[in-house]
Amino acid sequence: MRFANPLRVTSGPLLAVIVAVGLVAVPVDGWSQSRGPASVADLADGLLSAVVNISTTQNVAPRGPGRVPMPQLPEGSPFEEFFGEFFRDQESRPRPPGQGASLGSGFVVDADEGIVVTNNHVITGAAEIIVNFSDGSKVDAELVGIDTKTDIAVLKIDTTGRSLRAVSFGDSEAMRIGDWVMAIGNPFGFGGSVTVGIVSARNRQIGSGPYDDYIQTDAAINRGNSGGPLFNMDGEVIGINTAIISPSGGSIGIGFAIPSNLARNVVDQLREFGETRRGWLGVRIQPVTGEIAESLGLEEARGVLLSGIEKGGPAEGVLEAGDIIIGFDGVEVVDQRELRRIVAEAPVGSEVQVEVLRKGERKTVTVKLGRLEEDEEVASAEDEEGVDEPPVAEAKVLGMSIVELDDEARATFELPEDVSGVLISEVEEGSVADQQGIRPGDVIVEIALTSVSTPKEVLDQIEDLKAQGRKNALLMLANKTGELRFATLRMD
Question: Which Pfam families does the record associate with it (predicted)?
Answer without folding.
Answer: PDZ_2, PDZ_6, Trypsin_2
